[in-house]
């Protein structure tokens, strides 16, 4: 098959995806091997397809598609097709598909010159290496001791920081210890949904987060409207309560009254009447209990006399 035929076939395939799907992920594919790609495609086969290719080819196909279909909703992807990236088209729920993509990660050894994607710490404990290997530890300033004929690391050591290049000594030491400090897989960089592109962190927002944000916004609107004396749906309940408080204050200070104010006036006139009502209610509840306890004590005394076979007055 010639190059032109391969390009035409690729374009036809991409066009079919653009027609079928409304959602997609743009993923970075650095350090992802062919076997790992096979596992990812197999795991996502039910609801998604993975498309890789040259960025220029993908951009060209999207532009041609937009011209032919007179529809430019996919053009927003053009600015994000940079670097070693691919597109995962999906019909599934975005959160679950994103989580499924993140599952396919493979441990990898530290290679010389590689930029560390995360920090690496060597744990304390036995290494299983013979004492002749102490040179590696000395070069890296790792505290060790000889225990039962093997090298033992005495404390945890931060060997590599995220963003630093892996040196020859670090790579050799990690290989000797059998540590694969890095894991690689497809990394979701952006999410496309019906013409909009957004950060994948948006998928982590829950209903509770949205609810708390809306409530905070309503509180701020109500506070601003109360300060400006500008009534809105958010501030009217507070205005009504504040108005009731003002009317109640006027009623307490004057002869004007209304049903809801009478109880407040009665309390202010004789607070002791309300204070004595609470213990009285409590006493009425406790009285039957006290009577029951006295009755039980009398029955126990009578029972004990009967058990002895005589009465105190015999």
Characteristics of this structure?
three-stranded antiparallel beta sheet; five-stranded antiparallel beta sheet; disordered C terminus; alpha+beta; 314 residues; flat; 10 helices; 12 strands
Q: Please give the alpha-carbon distance between the first and last residues.
A: 125 Å
Structural class: alpha+beta
Describe the largest sheet: 5 strands, antiparallel
Query: With helices defined by DSSP (H or I, 4 residues minimum), what is the helix count?
Result: 10
Number of beta strands:
12
Helix coverage percent of residues? Answer: 40-55%
Radius of gyration computed on alpha carbons: 39 Å
Work out the strand percent: 15-25%
Low-confidence stretches: 280-284, 301-314
Mean pLDDT: 81
Biggest sheet strand order reads 2-3-1-11-12
Shape: flat
SSE pattern: HEHEHEHEEEHEEEHEEEHHHH
Blueprint of the fold:
Elements: H1 3-20, E1 23-28, H2 34-44, E2 48-51, H3 55-69, E3 85-90, H4 94-103, E4 106-108, E5 120-122, E6 125-126, H5 134-139, E7 144-147, E8 150-153, E9 157-160, H6 168-177, E10 182-184, E11 187-193, E12 196-198, H7 207-228, H8 236-253, H9 259-269, H10 271-308
Antiparallel strand pairs: 1-3, 1-11, 2-3, 4-10, 5-9, 6-8, 7-8, 11-12
Can you characterise this structure?
This protein is of the alpha+beta class and 314 residues long. It has ten helices and twelve strands. The protein has a five-stranded antiparallel sheet with strand order 2-3-1-11-12, sandwiched between helices. It has a three-stranded antiparallel sheet with strand order 6-8-7. Strands 4-10 form a two-stranded antiparallel ribbon. A hairpin with a 2-residue loop joins strand 11 and strand 12. Helix 1 crosses helix 3 (55-69) and helix 9 (259-269) packs across helix 10 (271-308). Residues 280-284 and 301-314 have low confidence and may be disordered.
């Amino acid at each position: 098959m010639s190059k032109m035929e391969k390009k035409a076939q690729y374009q036809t395939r991409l066009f079919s995806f653009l027609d079928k799907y409304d959602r997609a992920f743009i993923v970075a594919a650095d350090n992802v091997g062919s076997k790992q790609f096979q596992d990812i495609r197999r795991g996502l086969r039910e609801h998604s397809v993975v498309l890789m290719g040259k960025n220029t080819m993908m951009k060209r196909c999207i532009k041609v598609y937009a011209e032919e279909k007179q529809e430019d909703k996919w053009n927003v992807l053009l600015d994000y097709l940079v670097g070693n990236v691919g597109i995962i088209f999906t019909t599934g729920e975005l959160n679950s598909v994103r989580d499924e993509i993140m599952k396919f990660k493979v441990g990898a050894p530290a290679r010389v010159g590689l930029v560390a994607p995360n920090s690496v710490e060597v744990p304390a404990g036995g290494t299983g290496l013979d004492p002749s290997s102490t040179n590696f530890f000395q070069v890296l300033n790792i505290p060790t001791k000889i225990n039962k004929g093997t090298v033992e690391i005495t404390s945890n050591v931060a060997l590599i920081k995220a963003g630093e290049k892996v040196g020859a000594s670090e790579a050799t030491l990690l290989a000797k210890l059998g540590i694969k400090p890095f894991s690689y897989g497809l990394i979701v960089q952006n999410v496309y949904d019906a013409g909009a592109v957004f950060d994948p962190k948006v998928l982590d927002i829950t209903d509770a987060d949205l609810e708390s944000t809306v409530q905070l916004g309503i509180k701020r609107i109500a506070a601003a409207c109360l300060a400006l004396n500008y009534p809105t749906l958010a501030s009217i309940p507070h205005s009504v309560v504040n108005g009731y408080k003002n009317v109640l204050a006027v009623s307490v200070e004057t002869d004007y009254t209304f049903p809801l104010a009478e109880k407040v006036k009665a309390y202010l006139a004789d607070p002791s009447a309300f204070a004595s009502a609470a213990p009285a209610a409590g006493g009425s509840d406790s009285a039957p209990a006290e009577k029951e306890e006295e009755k039980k004590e009398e029955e126990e005394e009578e029972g004990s006399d009967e058990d002895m076979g005589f009465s105190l007055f015999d």
